[in-house]
Amino acid sequence: MNSRQRRGVILLLLSVLCALGAFAGVLSVISDVKSKVGPEVTAYRLTAEVAPYTPLRTGQFEKVKMPERWLSDTAVTDLSEIEGKIAVTTLRKGSLLQSDMIVNQPALQPGQQEVAIMIDAATGVAGKITPGATVNVYATFEGEREGDPAQSKIIVTNAKVIDVGRITALEPDDSSDSRQPTDGVPITFALSTIDAQRITYAESFAQRVRLALVAPGSDTTVPERERTYELAKDK
Fold this sequence. Notes:
single chain, 235 residues, alpha+beta, 2 domains
C-alpha cells in the first residue's frame, strides 16, 4: 500500500468517526429533549365558546396530545369528568379544559325540594329509571265511598329523578291483598312544593304508585280532564 492509499484509508476512517460522533450527538440531543419534555398525555381543548352555567357535552371539546409536564395539575385528561357538570364561567374557544372551570350541576332548581318515596321495585322501576330521568307519576285510589268507582290519576308530570336507591324488602302489612309489593326502591325527586305534597299524599293513601318513563324531548303536557281515569267512563 503506497502513501496515497494510506492517506485515503486514514481519511475514510476519520470520516466514519466523524459521522459516528455526529450521530451520537444527535441521539444525545434527542434524549435530552425527551428527558426535558417527558411523556405525552391527552388533554381537551374547547372547539367553541361555552356560556356560564351551561351543561357540558363531549362535542364541545377536541382531543389534543401534550407533554405531561406542560399541563397543570387541574387539566382534565379524561372527558368522563364533565358528566353532570356545568361551566362556572365563560369557557373560551381554544382554551384547555381545567377541573376548576367546572362544577357539579345543581340537582335542585330554585323553588324545588328533594322528596323521596318508596316505589314498587317490580312495577314502578323495572331497572329502567335512573338519576336524571323524567317521569310521570300515576296513582290508583279506591272510591271515596262504598260503591264509588276506583280511579287512576296522574299525580305529577315531568318529575325529575335525582337518585335511585337500592332495592329494599318491604315489611308486610295486615292487608289480605296478595298484590301488595314485597320489594321497594327509594326514589328521590326534585319537585315544587305542591308536587311534593301530591306525591307524598299518593304514597300514603294510594293503592299503587307507578312511574312512567318519559322519552327525552317528548311533550308531556296532560290536560286536566285527562288526568283522571275511571273504567266506567272509558268509551
